[in-house]
């Protein structure tokens, strides 16, 4: 394959036929460039959709109480529905096998003080299961546990930014934090990928909170995750069943929309999956379309190029070039051009995607990127079809009688 | 050098068959300078193509330097062309993106000679046709006569047994034609066998022998007194 003289011939032909070289190179480079950019933008769109799900578990159902909007079974309308511990226990006992994790939530605001630093933070009183629901990652120490719950300890877990705000460069683990006049012990520091607000939260056990704040058994909200073996349809049905059961439990009209609010992401996920599928199809169609048009472009250029060279090839044959050497010359030249141009297009495309970066975030395009493997395959496909497209006219040119080629003015 | 016996060639034109060569018997000895004459359609170009292995006969035999030329595949034909024959065409057929020197060196490339040898030999032959100073020029920068001289140098570069010239002066004015014929005569003087296809009587008269073709048969084959082209230059 490697013959210095032949490559010399090829480089000469390339160097001295700049238009032809440019045209075929341009087609390939453009094809790969467009392919890269479109694929990258498509991936950006995917990333954008996927990123909205990384924060929390995807199989979460929230249950919240509101005020009734209808009078029902002798109750007035506008009655406040207050969840209690027994409602949380009801969930745990009644939906065994369907519920993965469940936690009550009590929301508070707390003014936290350490030495001279202080700040107001969201406080969530929860069950230890909450860690899995929220995908909380422990940086140091531990999360709340059953002992904290049952013994109603004053142990808390704080977010990374709470530590940063109040403890500066100190290690908060094991230190005492004063909140609303009560001293708590920090047993863990966590991080969360959901953004800064998610890292400015303080967790304590819900039973401790109930004891310290009002000595009742009230809870604001119940979060649970359903078993992932359920299909999306089953999950939606499960959420509806919970809503029905709770309405019965609290004697709420079945068509009352505001008293019991059950929110599940199952429907969102279903919709998103449909959209994702659509995006995949679009990316696929666009990618294949770009490749096909690229291949056609290369085919045209190759046919044109060989046609243009018919006479030259005839001369070469008359001077003793074998058909094989003619085909080899034409193909080696086209492979060289398509490879170099394809590589250029690839580099340009990746560079363009880098430039775009996250500038298009408002258009739902996040971190547009392409896998090198995919682009390599695309380039190979272009080169292969470029070869094929070049081979047919090259073979015809090699077969043509030199005398006919020479008359081709 | 060339031995042809009962050569036949017909072309299929749709359902009709056109019988172009109807039994040509013809031989050329080494060192001859032969003009093949005839009006268009007489079969002279077909004969030259068969002699040049650019086309194949239907019947008859053809020996070139005692080698039978029959049933050659394309690769073999290419080898033989490269080894035995040099071509000069009416329309020069130089490769337009190559310089005069590179054009002359091309047959040597197909003989797998190394670059140094190619350049040396090509320069030598360019010198023979008086174009040493034009070696680095592209064909587009040369006059018609100069182009044909480059083509002749190229045809000679592979040191072929026979030089085949198809209307070598067809695209040139008479002064330039004589210059080209002068070169051809010079080469012949050195012993090269040359066949020239032409329809111009004055060009034919500058050869040593004239073969007249009409309707696919040789009607006349005579030795002539050679007119030297140098007197017109």
- Percent of residues in helices of chain A comes to 40-55%
**What is the overall pLDDT average of chain A?**
84
Tell me the major beta sheet of chain B. 6 strands, mixed
Terminal-residue CA separation of chain B: 31 Å
Major sheet strand order of chain B:
6-7-8-3-9-10
Q: Regarding quaternary structure, how should these chains be classified?
A: heterodimer
User: How many whole angstroms does the radius of gyration of chain A measure?
Assistant: 34 Å
For the structure shown, list the relevant keywords.
heterodimer; A: 409 residues; alpha+beta; six-stranded mixed beta barrel; two-stranded antiparallel ribbon; 12 strands; B: 233 residues; alpha/beta; six-stranded mixed beta sheet; four-stranded antiparallel beta sheet; 7 helices; 10 strands; 33% helix; globular
What does this structure look like?
The complex is a heterodimer of chains A (409) and B (233). Chain A has 409 residues and is an alpha+beta fold. Chain A contains twelve helices and twelve strands. A six-stranded mixed barrel of chain A has the order 3-4-9-6-8-7. In chain A, strands 2-10 form a two-stranded antiparallel sheet. In chain A, a hairpin with a 2-residue loop joins strand 3 and strand 4. The two termini of chain A are 33 Å apart. The mean pLDDT of chain A is 84. Chain B contains seven helices and ten strands. The chains are: A alpha+beta (409), B alpha/beta (233). The interface between A and B is medium-sized, with 28 and 31 residues.
Please specify the SSE layout and strand pairing.
The complex is a heterodimer of chains A (409) and B (233).
Chain A: H1 4-16, H2 18-51, E1 60-65, E2 83-84, H3 85-94, E3 99-114, E4 117-126, H4 130-134, E5 137-141, H5 146-150, E6 155-159, H6 160-167, E7 176-179, E8 182-191, E9 201-205, H7 206-212, E10 218-219, E11 221-226, H8 232-249, E12 260-264, H9 266-318, H10 323-356, H11 372-399, H12 402-407
Parallel strand pairs in A: 4-9, 6-8
Antiparallel strand pairs in A: 1-11, 1-12, 2-10, 3-4, 3-7, 3-11, 5-8, 6-9, 7-8
Helix pairs in contact in A: 1-10, 2-9, 2-10, 2-11, 8-9, 9-10, 9-11, 10-11
Chain B: E1 2-13, E2 16-28, E3 33-37, H1 44-51, E4 59-64, E5 67-68, H2 74-84, E6 85-88, H3 100-110, H4 115-128, H5 144-157, E7 162-166, H6 174-189, E8 193-197, H7 201-204, E9 209-214, E10 217-223
Parallel strand pairs in B: 3-8, 3-9, 6-7, 7-8
Antiparallel strand pairs in B: 1-2, 1-4, 4-5, 9-10
């Amino acid at each position: 394959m490697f013959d210095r003289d032949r490559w010399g011939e090829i480089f000469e032909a390339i160097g001295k036929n700049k238009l032809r070289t440019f045209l075929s190179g341009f087609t390939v480079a453009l094809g790969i460039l467009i392919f890269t950019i479109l694929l990258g933008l498509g991936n950006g769109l995917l990333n954008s959709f996927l990123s909205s799900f990384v924060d929390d578990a995807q199989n979460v159902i929230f249950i919240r109480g509101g005020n009734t909007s209808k009078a029902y079974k002798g109750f007035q309308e506008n009655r406040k529905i207050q969840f209690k511990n027994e409602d949380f226990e009801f969930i745990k006992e009644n939906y065994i096998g369907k519920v993965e994790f469940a936690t009550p939530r009590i929301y508070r605001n707390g003014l936290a003080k350490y030495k001279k630093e202080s700040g107001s933070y969201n406080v969530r009183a929860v069950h230890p299961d909450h860690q899995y629901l929220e995908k909380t990652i422990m940086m140091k120490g531990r999360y709340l546990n059953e002992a904290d719950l049952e013994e109603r300890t004053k142990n808390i877990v704080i977010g990374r930014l709470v530590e940063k705000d109040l403890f500066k460069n100190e290690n908060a683990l094991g230190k005492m934090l004063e909140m609303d006049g009560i001293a708590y012990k920090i047993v863990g520091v966590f991080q969360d990928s959901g953004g800064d607000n998610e890292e400015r939260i303080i967790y304590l056990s819900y039973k401790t909170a109930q004891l310290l704040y009002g000595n009742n058994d009230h809870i604001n909200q119940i979060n649970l995750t359903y078993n992932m073996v359920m299909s999306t349809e089953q999950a939606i049905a499960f959420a509806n069943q919970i809503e029905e059961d709770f309405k019965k439990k609290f004697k709420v009209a079945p068509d009352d929309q505001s008293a019991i609010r059950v929110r599940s992401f199952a429907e969102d996920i279903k919709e998103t999956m449909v959209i994702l599928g659509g995006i995949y199809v679009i990316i696929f169609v666009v990618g294949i379309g770009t490749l096909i048009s690229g291949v056609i472009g290369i085919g045209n250029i190759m046919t044109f190029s060989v046609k243009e060279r018919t006479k030259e090839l005839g001369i070469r044959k008359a001077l003793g070039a074998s058909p094989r050497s003619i085909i080899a010359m034409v193909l080696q030249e086209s492979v060289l051009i398509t490879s170099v141009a394809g590589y250029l297009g690839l580099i340009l495309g990746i560079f363009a995607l880098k430039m775009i970066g996250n500038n298009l975030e408002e258009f739902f395009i996040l971190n547009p990127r392409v896998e090198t493997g995919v682009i390599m395959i695309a380039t190979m496909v272009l080169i292969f079809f470029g070869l094929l497209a070049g081979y047919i006219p090259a073979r015809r040119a090699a077969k043509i009688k030199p005398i006919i080629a020479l008359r081709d003015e | 050098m060339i031995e042809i016996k009962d050569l036949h060639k017909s072309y299929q034109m749709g359902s009709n068959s056109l019988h172009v060569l109807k039994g040509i018997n013809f031989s050329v000895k080494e060192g001859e300078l032969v003009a093949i004459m005839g009006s268009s359609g007489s079969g002279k170009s077909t004969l030259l193509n068969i002699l040049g292995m650019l086309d194949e006969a239907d019947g008859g035999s053809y020996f070139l330097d005692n080698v039978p030329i029959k049933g050659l595949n394309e690769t073999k034909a290419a080898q033989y062309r490269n080894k035995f024959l040099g071509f000069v065409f009416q329309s020069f057929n130089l490769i337009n993106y190559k310089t005069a020197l590179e054009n002359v060196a091309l047959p040597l490339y197909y003989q797998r000679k190394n670059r140094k040898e190619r350049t040396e030999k090509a320069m030598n032959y360019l010198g023979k046709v008086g174009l040493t100073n034009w070696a680095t020029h592209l064909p587009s920068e040369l006059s018609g006569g100069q182009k044909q001289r480059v083509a002749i140098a190229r045809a000679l570069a592979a040191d072929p047994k026979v030089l085949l010239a198809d209307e070598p002066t067809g695209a040139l004015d008479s002064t330039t034609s004589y210059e080209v014929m002068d070169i051809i005569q010079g080469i012949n003087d050195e012993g090269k066998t040359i066949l020239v296809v032409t329809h111009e009587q004055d060009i034919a008269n500058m050869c040593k022998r004239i073969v007249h073709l009409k309707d696919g048969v040789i009607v006349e084959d005579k030795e002539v007194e050679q007119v030297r082209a140098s007197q017109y230059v």
